[in-house]
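User: I'm putting together notes for a lab meeting next week and I want to include a structural view of one of the chains we've been expressing. I don't have a solved structure, so I'd like a prediction I can at least talk through. The sequence is below, exactly as it appears in our construct file.
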Amino acid sequence: MDRITLCELDEWQRAGRSFTLLDVRRERVRAADGADIPGARWLRPEELFAWKDEVPRDRPAVIVCAHGHELSQGAAATLRAMGLDARFLVDGFAAWRDSGRPVVPIGQTEGALR
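Assistant: Thanks for the context. Below is the predicted structure for the 114-residue chain, given as structure tokens.
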């Protein structure tokens, strides 16, 4: 499976499932949004080849971009090619926020990849 829906991600979070949530929105888009999905780690998409080896291999990686198109799909495909279970969030951050699901102000969820 190479994608995950809003409902599935919401269920994973509520169930406490182990996964890595990576936000690859462009910096200006993320700043304009002013918020993150709880638990997300923001990484610059243009630096994917610098951080790709830090993504944990022992659990799925969920990749989020603004609308679930090129950035998240490309990052997920790259990580899958490396043997990781990587999925992109269908319709991205905008759909997550617009659906009324929880968001947090930028910077409240960042930390090291683990």
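A couple of points you could mention at the meeting. The beta strands are 3-4, 20-23, 35-36, 41-42, 61-64, 86-89, 104-105. The chain has one domain: 3-105.

User: Perfect, that's what I needed.
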